[in-house]
């Protein structure tokens, strides 16, 4: 697993510390950032939920995001994220919150330009997390939420002011992109 673009492109990332964990593949990660484009990432404040190895947030930092907050409930995975940030030299532009997503969403401060989430495929419903992002005001107007998930999980086209702007499929994975405040 490597960073696919930006300042630390090609840098190796540590694998998950938990057996059976499924990190976002290089192919899907690269596709996500191609969909977003550099303008959506440059100087962005990023939230990486269900961060795992931190690969999505680290990719954003490598592509010139200003800051990234990582939320991961496993202490072993939090250690992996911290090591990956150290190994890429990006620690000074990030903070790792080692807690459950639901708890973190109610305590994070400010809003984000970009929210990246690739939860475990065994999660059957992502609606509570998307609704909490909306309820807590964590996505700024015009901000983007990218959700990686199993293609077997269907997402709604709208969660409050988060509206779908499309779905892409990559093998067993699907990626949905939502925009905050997008008029339809």
Kindly describe this structure.
There is one protein chain. Helix content is 29%, strand content 29%. The chain is of the alpha/beta class and 184 residues long. The chain has one domain (26-180): 3-Layer(aba) Sandwich (Rossmann fold), CATH 3.40.50. It has an 8-stranded mixed beta sheet with strand order 3-2-1-4-5-8-7-6. Strand 2, helix 4 (75-88) and strand 3 (94-98) form a beta-alpha-beta unit. The chain is globular and about 40 Å long. The protein starts with 25 loop residues before the first helix and ends with a strand.
Summarize this entry quickly.
With 184 residues, the protein is an alpha/beta fold.
Strand and helix layout:
Blueprint: H1 26-36, H2 38-41, E1 45-49, H3 55-62, E2 67-72, H4 75-88, E3 94-98, H5 101-107, E4 112-117, H6 127-135, E5 139-150, E6 158-159, E7 162-170, E8 173-180
Parallel strand pairs: 1-2, 1-4, 2-3, 4-5
Antiparallel strand pairs: 5-8, 6-7, 7-8
Could you report the average pLDDT, rounded to the nearest whole number? 91
CATH superfamily, by name, is Vaccinia Virus protein VP39
CATH architecture: 3-Layer(aba) Sandwich
Radius of gyration: 15 Å
* Largest sheet geometry: 8 strands, mixed
Count up the helices.
6
Structural class: alpha/beta
Name the helicity range: 25-40%
Tell the overall outline: globular
Strand order of the largest sheet: 3-2-1-4-5-8-7-6
Specify the CATH class: Alpha Beta
The helix/strand order is HHEHEHEHEHEEEE
CATH topology: Rossmann fold
How many strands? 8
């Amino acid at each position: 697993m490597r960073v696919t673009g930006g300042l630390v492109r090609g840098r190796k990332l540590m694998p998950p510390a938990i057996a059976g964990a499924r990190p976002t593949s290089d192919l899907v990660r690269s596709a996500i950032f191609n969909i977003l484009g550099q303008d959506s990432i440059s100087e962005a404040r990023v939230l990486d939920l269900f961060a795992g190895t931190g690969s999505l947030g680290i990719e954003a930092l490598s592509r010139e995001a200003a800051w990234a907050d990582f939320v991961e409930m496993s202490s072993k995975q939090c250690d992996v994220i911290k090591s990956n940030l150290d190994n890429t030299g990006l620690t000074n532009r990030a903070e790792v919150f080692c807690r459950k997503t639901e708890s973190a969403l109610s305590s994070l401060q400010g809003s984000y330009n970009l929210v990246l989430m690739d939860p475990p495929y065994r999660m059957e419903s992502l609606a509570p997390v998307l609704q909490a992002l909306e309820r807590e005001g964590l996505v700024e107007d015009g901000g983007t939420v990218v959700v990686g998930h199993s293609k077997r999980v269907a997402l709604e086209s709208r969660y409050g002011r988060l509206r779908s702007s499309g779905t892409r499929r990559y093998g067993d994975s699907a990626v949905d992109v939502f925009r905050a405040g997008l008029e339809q």
